[in-house]
Design goal:
It contains 2 helices and 13 strands. By secondary structure, the chain is of the alpha+beta class. The protein starts with a helix and ends in a 14-residue tail after the last strand.
Length: about 220
């Protein structure tokens, strides 16, 4: 019969083995590396940092209300970039307008960084009373006038702003009484013409994972 000490040692070994397994990085998604702590499965990475690898070897980020393709990951900066869905060129309505735009799960370890220049388009006139830049020189007008697929957005108010602060940490909200479309550009150089701007995207940052628990001391 196994002694209590042997059983305790076995339990410790199993616990340590499970911890070591959970600290393993996930295998690549096609040609895309998945750095720790990001996790595409239950046996690798940290499940709190869940992303997905689909059947087409595309990395996906699930917000609280939508799914967005991941276009780049910077493990040293703890950042990833997600692509935004298109805007209907005839109505200036974003494809994720029915789900109220980008909404992050506040219990997840991701926030919107302060490196995004956001344009709110096709807005209700009430937005003109906001602290956003809604004037004639706003970058939203540069985008509308310089982008062929955005001409329909010129019929309504628009505004621009730089992310940062508690109001934009977790969401870029669309709603009927506000704005129906948005674009975001990571580290935008506003001096460039609109046809030289990067692809519409949003940069997110993840919090550092908690330190793993210390291994139990050897039992004598």
């Amino acid at each position: 019969m196994a002694t209590p000490l042997i059983l305790l040692r076995a339990a410790v070994l199993l616990t340590c083995a499970g911890l070591a397994l959970s600290l393993l990085p996930c295998p690549p998604c096609g040609t895309h590396p998945v750095p720790y702590p990001l996790s595409t499965g239950p046996t690798c990475g940290d499940p709190w940092y869940k992303i997905r690898c689909d059947n087409n070897a595309t990395l996906l980020f699930d917000s609280s209300n939508n799914t967005y393709p991941i276009t780049s990951i910077s493990p040293y900066d703890q950042r990833l970039v997600i692509a935004l869905p298109p805007i209907d060129a005839s109505t200036c309505v974003a494809a994720d307008f029915p789900t109220n735009g980008l909404q992050l799960n506040r219990s997840a370890p991701f926030i919107i960084t302060n490196t995004n220049t956001v344009l709110y388009l096709n807005c209700n006139d009430s937005i003109l009373r906001s602290p956003l830049d809604c004037g004639p020189d706003s970058l939203c007008h540069v985008y509308i006038n310089g982008t062929s697929g955005a001409r329909a957005c010129g019929a309504a108010a628009c505004c621009s702003f730089r992310t940062g602060g508690s109001t934009t940490e977790y969401r870029l909200r669309l709603r009927p009484e506000g704005c129906r479309a948005y674009r975001s550009f990571v580290r935008l150089n506003p001096k460039l013409p609109a046809d030289q701007w990067p692809q519409p995207s949003v940069e997110l940052q993840w919090a550092s994972p908690p330190e793993p628990p210390l291994a139990p001391l050897a039992l004598g």
